[in-house]
Specification:
CATH topology of the largest domain: Oxidized Rhodanese, domain 1
Structural class: alpha/beta
Number of domains: 2
Strand content: 5-15%
Shape: globular
CATH class of the largest domain: Alpha Beta
Order of helices and strands: EHEHEHEHEHEHEHEHEHEH
Largest sheet: 5 strands, parallel
CATH superfamily of the largest domain: Rhodanese-like domain
CATH architecture of the largest domain: 3-Layer(aba) Sandwich
Distance between the termini: 53 Å
Strand order of the largest sheet: 1-5-4-2-3
């Protein structure tokens, strides 16, 4: 039995073949903003993949900032992941009900931030899985706690001070994964803000442009490269990705990893922080 995953993505076929592997742990990461009147934990309890446990990005988070689901400390991440039954050496597969955009990609990124690379996202997520009539279950999963080790990788995260400094230096290309209406300021974001629009000099590449609508899988690597090129992104230069709250931006990070572009950073506070601050510039156009 292999102790590593085939890559940043796994297919529904691959996961079906490996469901019974004792070192394979599955996380249902479904999350919804409160405005949707949906709840990821409730959906998990209604039906989930066999053996999956629920990972709540609002629970595994630093709640002291007042911002949504900010990264916790390494110690807190290690403790809460261990309580989910994940230990050092386990293979982790994450999924959600929105093709990675409702937190699975962020959880994938969180594991990398805390020094753990043996994690992959289910391509197509829950939607593709059930469309193919694969097994699901309702029974709650109560895992045995395990020991998980976490070590913070600061190069994968940006804070507001670093984003302000980048306005002057231009050292990093800033990609915004939100939809065009939120990017150009014609539509309010889902989190409270003092301003609309985007960070100056940011480039818009909506995360949905990387998803095949019919199946929910990511577009193939050559199409990923083409989309970034069309947006004017130079893959040889540093990149930081932002969005509403550091969630859908991680879909872009995962896509970039698939084409060999690693060490891409995420602005953790994203527009939930930048748009709320009094002294941050914004472009609406």
């Amino acid at each position: 039995m292999s102790t590593t995953l085939p890559g940043a993505l796994v297919s529904t076929e691959w996961l079906t073949e490996h469901l019974s592997d004792p070192d394979l742990k599955i996380l249902d990461c479904t999350w919804h903003h409160e405005s949707t009147n949906l709840d990821g934990r409730t959906q998990y309890r209604g039906r989930h993949l066999p053996g999956a446990v629920h990972f709540d990005i609002d629970h595994v988070a630093d709640k002291s900032t007042g911002l949504p689901h900010m990264l916790p400390s390494a110690a807190d991440f290690a403790k809460k992941v261990g309580l989910l039954g994940i230990g050092d050496g386990d293979r982790v597969v994450v999924y959600d009900r929105n093709c990675g955009g409702s937190a699975a990609a962020r959880v994938w990124w969180m594991f990398h931030v805390f020094g753990y690379d043996n994690v992959a996202m289910l391509d197509g997520g829950y939607g593709k899985w059930v469309a193919e009539k694969r097994a699901t279950e309702m029974s709650p999963v109560r895992p045995e706690p395990k020991t998980f080790t976490a070590a913070f990788a600061p190069e994968l995260v940006r804070g507001i001070a670093q984003m302000r400094a980048n306005l002057l230096s231009g050292a990093e290309q800033v990609l915004d994964a939100r939809g065009p209406a939120k990017f150009n300021g014609s539509q309010e974001d889902v989190f409270p803000a003092r301003k609309l629009g985007h960070i100056p000099n940011a480039v818009n590449l909506p995360w949905g442009d990387l998803i095949v609508p019919e199946t929910g899988v990511l577009v193939p690597p050559e199409a990923i490269s083409a989309r970034f090129a069309a947006a004017g992104v130079d893959l040889s230069k540093p990149i930081v990705v932002t969005c509403a709250s550091g969630t859908i931006s991680c879909v872009l990070v995962l896509a970039l990893a698939l084409i060999g572009c690693k060490n891409v950073a995420v602005y953790d506070g994203s527009w939930a922080e930048w748009g709320l601050a009094e002294d941050t510039p914004a472009v609406a156009a």
